[in-house]
Amino acid sequence: MAAAQDRLDSTFAALADPTRRAIVDRLARGDATVNELAAPFAMTLPGISKHLKVLERCGLISRTRNAQFRPCHLERAVLDSAAGWIEENRRTWTERFDKLDQHLRDIQTVDPTMGDDDE
Amino acid sequence: MNDQAAIDELVYTRVFDAPRELVFRCLIEPEHLTHFWGPVGVSTPLATIKVDARPGGVFETIMVNDADGSQYPTRAVFVEVTEPERLVWTEPDSGVTTTSTLRDLGDSRTEVRIHQVNVPEEYRSPEAQAGFATSLDRFAAYLAKFA
User: pTM (2 decimals)?
Assistant: First the structure.
């Protein structure tokens, strides 16, 4: 649980950077080499590599070990779990609010002469 | 770029037909929390709720899945308690800070705004703030592109 949370935190941190988001965006359309990823940016290869390492560390991308150009691959499951956390959080608050709404109705319609539990 | 101004955040707002003082009490009193804290299909037994509503005080619950009994403990610490308008707590395990702001709309109606940020604001340097550009809401929309 804590490990999953750590991973999620590092996923959010990794995606807080616009260059890394653009890289993820590009990889969503298919695997690409470092050179291909660097092309749209005014950035050196080492600069791009640094970003790729951040993405790799949180598991968002993987790189083939043996191929000469080591194409980068987007790990959709990691992206999905980040999206899933947000969705779950949103649902929790929505349902919590629904229940609070009902609870407030319940306690406000209680007949005061019926003996409240006297706080 | 204007995107850079937004910090990672989630915002949920709801208007309740109840006076602000009552809504505030619902958010800090276990007798009320037990009725609504768990989402659908999840209970929060009264005995598992600990609330010490003052800065540094704990806010702990154990949510129990009604179907299989699995437990989800939550642990938070209050940063600010300003009755009846503002509650701030942080969850040390996740680093998420939640601010609840209660606005009196008159007519016994209260707007509750839940604002969650990943990193406590007071811990963020200006550089970190500039770097943490992505609103989680915006991020969610961004992720939706890949769905």
Answer: 0.68
What is the predicted ipTM? Answer: 0.76
Q: Which CATH architecture has domain B10-120?
A: 2-Layer Sandwich (3.30)
- Taking CB atoms and an 8 Å limit, are A104 and B132 in contact across chains? no
Do residue A85 and residue A99 come from a single domain? yes
CA-nearest residue to A98 within chain B is: B36
Per residue in A31-54, pLDDT tens?
999 988 998 888 888 999 999 999
Contacts A–B by Cβ distance under 8 A: 101
Q: Chain A contact for B35, CB < 8 A?
A: yes
Q: How many domains does chain A have?
A: 2
**Strands (DSSP E) along chain A, which ranges?**
61-63, 72-74
Residue B3 CB neighbours (<10 A):
10
- Residues linked to residue A88 through DSSP beta bridges, in sequence order: none
